[in-house]
């Protein structure tokens, strides 16, 4: 698999965000309707907790600065870049993993993370 250049990712993200159409929305809604995340451990929000793999982050010290101070499967002690981006864009506070067992329809519609740690292996 060839390495993807950073500018390609930026172009893809821009195309997704700026192609929101002319749908009429109340002013309280964000201009961006959803966020979809693809990647590796740098943006994995917990998908690896639900699959059979050696790469997991469901133990301490992961999650010590996250809401509830519990490990969530994020390879971070707190929120990830997609979480901050979703907050800045006023979509949601954090991006849940797609494989989360009790994922609501609203969470799916407003965006999820398909990222999985160890994806390059």
Could you name the key traits of this structure?
SGNH_hydro_sf, mainly alpha, single chain, GDSL_lipolytic_enzyme, GDSL, signal, 121 residues
Written description of the protein model:
With 121 residues, the chain is mainly α. The chain has one domain (32-121). It has three helices and no strands. The model is unreliable at 19-28 (pLDDT under 50). Keywords: Signal.
Write a short abstract of this structure.
With 121 residues, the protein is mostly helical. It contains three helices and no strands.
Task: Give the SSE map.
Blueprint: H1 6-18, H2 81-88, H3 105-110
Number of helices: 3
Q: Mean of residue pLDDT?
A: 80
Output the radius of gyration: 15 Å
Whole-number tally of structural domains: 1
The total of beta strands comes to: 0
Give, in order, the helices and strands: HHH
Shape: globular
- Helix fraction, binned, reads 10-25%
Parts with pLDDT < 50 across at least 5 consecutive residues: 19-28
Organism: Salix suchowensis
Protein name: GDSL esterase/lipase
Keywords: Signal
Signal peptide: 1-23
């Amino acid at each position: 698999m060839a390495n993807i250049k950073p500018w390609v990712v930026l172009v893809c993200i821009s195309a997704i965000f700026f192609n929101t159409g002319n749908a009429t929305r109340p002013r309280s809604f964000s201009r961006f309707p959803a966020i979809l995340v693809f990647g590796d451990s740098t943006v994995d929000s917990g998908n690896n907790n639900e699959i059979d793999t050696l790469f997991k982050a469901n133990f301490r010290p992961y999650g010590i600065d996250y809401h509830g101070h519990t490990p969530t499967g994020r390879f971070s002690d707190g929120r990830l870049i997609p979480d901050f981006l979703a907050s800045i864009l006023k979509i949601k506070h954090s991006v849940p993993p797609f494989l989360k067992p009790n994922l609501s329809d609203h969470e799916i519609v407003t965006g999820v993370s398909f990222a999985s740690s160890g994806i390059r292996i």
